[in-house]
Design a protein that fits this description.
Blueprint (H helix, E strand, L loop, with lengths): L1 H9 L4 E2 L18 E2 L5 H6 L8 H23 L10 H27 L4 H30 L4 H22 L10 H13 L2 H19 L2 H20 L16 H30 L1 H9 L1
Antiparallel strand pairs: 1-2
Helix pairs in contact: 3-4, 3-10, 4-5, 4-10, 5-6, 5-10, 6-7, 7-9, 9-10
Length: 298
């Protein structure tokens, strides 16, 4: 440990190859170089934002995404839409639940990738935050869709909200177990996150049965939901399969590794979902909720 700290002081931007890493930093053997030294310092971790290493893209992609969603949240409240007067407490609660989930997920993700070389203890703590953020984003993404998708049908709305919340709590309880956070359980973690997200197929099909595909493009922003789902699923599979670095070890250490592609697809998914939520909100508040409900129920 003393030798590592001395090396860091001598050359803080020095990077390591896989074989030089302590075991707690070894995760993806196909990324063979570009690793930061263990820093044992939050300040030095933050300094690593300003030189190139194999976590640079992972950090900056979600850090910039975090800034974007903070700005979008502020814009929503500071520059009200034309229908702002018709928004209810539920509109604000479900919108904020999604935005909070996005902000927490992107913030915890960028934080984890920035501080994962601090020390074994700090890396584990931020890893738990990272997984918590993922679950929070998935569950928070459901809330506005279920609210608008079943705006005229409160009973299934409440049932679906209760089910996804319960599933989210159970998923978090499992993935936060210590042994589930190790590389050996990568596929199981991915499977649990995918299963939680793919539960959305059930209420989506239910919504299509209620409104039809054409109307669902507005009521639940079906088009944006499809883009979001494709982005999340493909990103998760690329991450779990470690493609493309599995095919060409050492060639994607700094750019275009599976985790970086995953991060970019998460951004596509979250932005798509934001646009979808805003479209659904606009639909219900420009057409009049009560008159629209009479149309769909009658």
């Amino acid at each position: 440990m003393n030798n590592e700290r001395t090396a860091l002081l001598d050359n803080p931007s020095k990077t390591l190859i896989w074989s030089q890493l302590p075991k707690w930093m070894q995760d993806n053997m196909f990324i063979t170089s570009g690793y930061r030294l263990p820093s044992y310092s939050y300040r030095r971790c933050i300094q690593s934002l300003f030189y190139l290493h194999n976590e640079s893209v992972n950090i900056w992609s979600h850090l910039l995404g975090l800034v974007l969603f903070i700005v979008l949240s502020l814009h929503f409240f500071l520059y009200p839409h034309a229908f702002a007067d018709s928004l209810t407490t539920f509109d604000y609660v479900y919108f904020c639940s999604f935005m909070a989930g996005a902000i927490l997920c992107l913030g915890f993700s960028s934080g984890y990738h920035c501080f994962c070389n601090h020390s074994e203890l700090v890396a584990a703590q931020w890893n738990r935050c990272d997984y918590t953020g993922i679950v929070t984003l998935i569950v928070g993404s459901f809330y506005p869709v279920l609210y608008y998708g079943f705006h005229c049908h409160p009973t299934p709305q409440v049932v679906y909200l209760a089910v996804i919340t319960t599933l989210g709590v159970l998923t978090a309880a499992v993935v936060l177990l210590r042994h589930f956070r190790t590389p050996a359980y990568r596929w199981m973690r991915t499977g649990l996150f995918l299963a939680l997200g793919l539960f959305g197929i059930v209420p989506t099909l239910h919504g299509i049965c209620l409104y039809g595909i054409g109307t669902s493009l507005d009521t639940i922003s079906l088009g944006y939901l499809v883009v979001m789902a494709i982005s999340y699923v493909s990103g998760a599979l690329i991450y779990a399969c470690r493609i493309p670095e599995r095919w060409y070890p050492g060639k994607f250490d700094i750019w275009f590794s599976s985790h970086q592609i995953f991060h970019m697809l998460v951004l596509v998914a979250v932005i798509s979902h934001y646009l979808g939520v805003m479209q659904a909100m606009t639909y219900w508040h420009t057409n009049g909720s009560k008159s629209a409900c009479i149309q769909f129920i009658s």
